[in-house]
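Internal ticket - ligand job 287, guanine:
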Amino acid sequence: MSKIIDGKAVSQSVKDRIKEKAARLKEKYNVTAGLAVIIVGDDPASRIYVNNKKKACEYVGFDSYEYALPEETTENELLELINKLNNDERIDGILCQLPLPKHIDENVIINNISPNKDVDAFHPVNVGKIMIGDYNFLPCTPAGVMELIASTGIDIKGKECVVVGRSNIVGKPMSMLLLHKSGTVTICHSKTKDLKAECKRADILVAAVGVPNLIKGDMIKEGAVVIDVGMNRLDSGKLCGDVEFESASNIAGYITPVPGGVGPMTIAMLMQNTLTAAMINRNIVKE
Ligand code: GUN
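stdout (structure tokens):
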């Protein structure tokens, strides 16, 4: 039976670390980090995510500013708000919850967030910095996965790492972070010829495709670290990952559950990025 990686516990310890640093920032520099969260329309899942982000800010001691805009908001109106927030000294981080309504081009919005306030690390400048390995912000989900792998005590150096999924938000940056830690990285996707054979080689397997239960136990190497980024809602209403937990947890050495694995980490890493942004925007040198 695999060891379960407890995302809630790891996330709690990251948030506690940030809470301490936030208190020191306040004491030493009288600075309270501020995060602006924009939500357009009333997608129920987005509403839950935004509420959780605000709660996390409260927990660590950051100010959060919510901008809830109606579905009909135009691209120009949203750009005007972003421009205002880019120039607002109270705001260190700007997060525009995705997906946006279809009439708004997400890339245009992302490209207009100041790179120093881009706590999602979606702006091309920050994406490029990740590629080079000289970055301030890491995209929250891959950064959370790295924390979960670190929590197992397993060293990535020289390991076979297989990432299933090539999205800009998870798969591609995930692969870069594993590469920076000297893993031997393979990226699989929908056109990969033999997914089972690729996965079976992996010492560290990260599934981020959004296909419920795609990865079965017989595709996993004995003792592997298996990280499931999938968050799929079944017709029954139940949440399920990209990994078939029941069969996989007999083979893997370590495995993340869904829910309670990667999910809680994403918000913790957002808090980390907001703290980093506050230090950059307020010219505070790292201690
Ligand atoms: N929607 C789902 N996940 C995310 C995320 O990490 N950032 C933003 N901005 N929107 C999301």
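Auto-summary: The chain has ten helices and eleven strands. The mean pLDDT is 97.
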